[in-house]
Amino acid sequence: MSPLAQLLEAALFSAARPLTAEELATLEPDATLADVRAAVDQLREHYDFNQHGVELVELAGGFQVLTRPVHAAAIERAQFSVRTPKLTAAALETLAIIAYRQPVGRAEIEEIRGVSAGGVLRALQERGLIEVVGRSELLGRPLLYGTAASFLELLGLKDLSDLPRADELTIALQPHRPEQQGTDDAAAYVPAES
Amino acid sequence: MSPLAQLLEAALFSAARPLTAEELATLEPDATLADVRAAVDQLREHYDFNQHGVELVELAGGFQVLTRPVHAAAIERAQFSVRTPKLTAAALETLAIIAYRQPVGRAEIEEIRGVSAGGVLRALQERGLIEVVGRSELLGRPLLYGTAASFLELLGLKDLSDLPRADELTIALQPHRPEQQGTDDAAAYVPAES
Amino acid sequence: MSSPDAPIAAAEALTTALGAGAAFVVELDAFAGPLDLLLHLLREEQIEIADIPIARVADQFLHAIQHLGLNQAADYLDMASRLVRLKAQMLLPRRTDDEGWEDPRAELVRRLLEYQQIREVAIWLGRAAEKRSEQLARGYLPPPPALPPPPLVLDLLELLQAVERVIAGIPSPVLHRVVARPLDVESATARIELLLLEREEIGWLEALGPRPSIVDLLSTLLALLELAKRGLLRVSQPAPFAPMVIARESVSTAA
User: Fold this and answer.
1) What is the rounded distance in angstroms from the CA atom of residue B111 to the CA atom of residue B181?
2) Domain ranges of chain A
3) Which CATH number applies to B3-77: 3.40.50.150, 1.10.1780.10, 3.40.47.10, 1.10.10.10?
4) How far C141 CA lies from chain B's nearest CA (Å)?
5) Torsion, CA C96, CA C102, CA C107, CA C112, rounded to 10
6) Which of A47, B11, C193, C221 could link A52 by a cystine bridge, Cβ 3.0 to 4.6 Å?
């Protein structure tokens, strides 16, 4: 492995989250982004070619070293590590609404799900999956939520465009009703239109 | 690498502590201690021979995969463990309320912002921007928060009286619903006869 | 997305056989909300969302929430009342050639379709999270570097902007005129005691004194209640809506 690939490997091992190419580039002042990408590729290929128990994964806009799925069951049985707890149906539905409609307020989430959302929103915020991204112009200036960095990490997605698109869903996305949203630019967040 | 070495690598990678040979043997029911030791040796040699950025270290009676010391300085300089040196909107708003209303309790902050403040208060405390300055006389004797020394340092202020528009903003940040104030001094809020 | 049937199968794994037999054995949190329950009922009956037989579905919904013990939950009751209202609307007669007729079910259908779609995405997200959880991240993390963390970026302008946001976000900034004028129960007590020294019995208006303010009124009421509790006077009302009569209670006889 090249010296840069070695350094990147050490950095990826000591980070708790995915590191972007830009962050990795700060490790070595003389390295360009292209150098970093080449070293990342070398590392990935080395892990694959030598059949390592770990692999280099691209997610949440960065790179992370993770164990290969095939070993999860044995490690869990031996209780050396535990999986992240599963999200409840309510949490997943709320995340789904926020992911597709962000920025979105609590009232709209409650309207779509037909139940109050306060507890779920708080829990998602505490897990770092969503965050307040602003305030609506509507009466009372309610808070607007969007997905946070950990959302992509938890789901193993590279970016939001990895989410299923409208035409891949069996039910087409409903067009936004302006009276629900209040702001015109909200329509720009419907993935269907993109 | 042998299938056992791959499994051991994944386990050592995901465990938060050194694992002994006996513990590693529980991963694979068919593996003897000798098999485990051989696989550990294979993994160590692979890391050394291919000049990986990590190495297999024997410590505390067990084995652990650690980054090589030679990379420590570069990783420390890059400081990947610190995610972002900027405050979120929620943290800034909470900090603003505390700055202008101190000493102030959590209930009052939550009343002004309309959302729960627990997580944000903890984060601001961890960053050393706010501190507990006392307890209220109200029921339950809730903690009162104020800004800490590093708050003034960050803003380059000599003392709190240097905060701009202090008189105006302190008044503007009063919660507007007197009936939700602490019950003890409710008598002071009897509306004027009109 | 995988096959379109998959979300439905997964949803059914969430719930148990509802309506299959006489007895329901359902976990309370088996349903994520009233729309979830409604969708479940429609699937059970293999009903098209676009053409819901409201009368039947409304009855089943009411039946279901009663059996599930959900008839106390506001969200479910809200849906129940909507369904009952729709049922009534559907019973209204209409002419067959009435082109202006708007299907009262349209809003419910829209909401159900929208919710069903969110459910589908939620199931997709759940699978993605499940798949990701098969891969474990580094367990051991080296202690954070001894170097001081990079300086936090914060400036006064940002702080003031945050203040403006907070102020703008405070709902209906109604300014109350706050008058520091606490209740004066002591004076009211003294006034009543004085009156009762002179006379055996006084009226409520006399106890209030001339031109009472709302503070006087509240103070007098509290004083009366306190004195009555201490057994110093008796408050009675001779007839409904008649003025209160305050009578001296002889302490000496009680003692």
Assistant:
1) 10
2) 3-77, 89-163
3) 1.10.10.10
4) 7
5) 30
6) A47
Report angle CA C240, C243, C247 to the nearest 5 degrees: 110
The answer to whether the CB atoms of A75 and B27 lie below 8 A apart is yes
Could C136 and B75 be called an inter-chain contact, meaning their C-beta atoms sit closer than 8 Å?
Answer: no
Residue range A48-91, pLDDT digits in tens: 999 999 999 999 999 999 999 999 999 999 988 887 888 889 99
In sequence order, what E strands does B10-89 have? 54-59, 62-67
CB contact under 8 A, B13 and C183: no
Assess whether the region B3-77 and the region B89-163 belong to the same CATH fold.
yes
Task: Dump pLDDT digits (tens) for B104-144.
Answer: 999 899 888 877 888 889 889 988 899 999 998 888 888 99
Distance between CA atoms of residues A5 and B51, nearest Å: 10
Tokens 């990079």, residue located: C150
* pLDDT, greater one: A92 or C104: A92
Interface test with B, best of C133, C140, C177, C214 (most B CBs within 10 A): C140
Average pLDDT value for chain B:
83
Question: Is C150 within 8 Å of B85 when comparing Cβ atoms?
Answer: yes
Q: Among A13, A81, A89, whose Cβ lies nearest the Cβ of C122?
A: A89
CA A156 to each of CA A19, A150, A166: distance values in angstroms, whole numbers, following the listed order: 14, 10, 20
Q: Which of B8, B75, B87, B183 is the best substitution to test chain C (most C C-beta atoms within 10 A)?
A: B87
Q: Mean pLDDT in each 10-residue stretch from start to end of chain C (255 residues)?
A: 40 37 44 87 85 89 85 82 89 69 84 89 91 89 64 79 81 58 81 87 83 83 87 84 81 45
The answer to whether the predicted template modeling score (pTM) of the entire model surpasses 0.90 is: no
CATH entry 1.10.10.10 includes domain B89-163: yes
Q: How far away is chain B from the Cα of A71, in angstroms, using its nearest Cα?
A: 6
Q: Is residue B176 within 8 Å of residue C175, measured between CB atoms?
A: yes
Chain B interface mutation, best of C132, C133, C166, C215, highest count of B Cβ atoms under 10 Å? C166
Nearest CA among A56, A68, A55, A63 for reference residue A18: A63
Please judge whether B15 and C152 are an interchain contact, meaning their C-beta atoms are less than 8 angstroms apart: no
The reported pLDDT for the residue numbered B143 is 92
B191–C179 CB contact, under 8 Å: yes
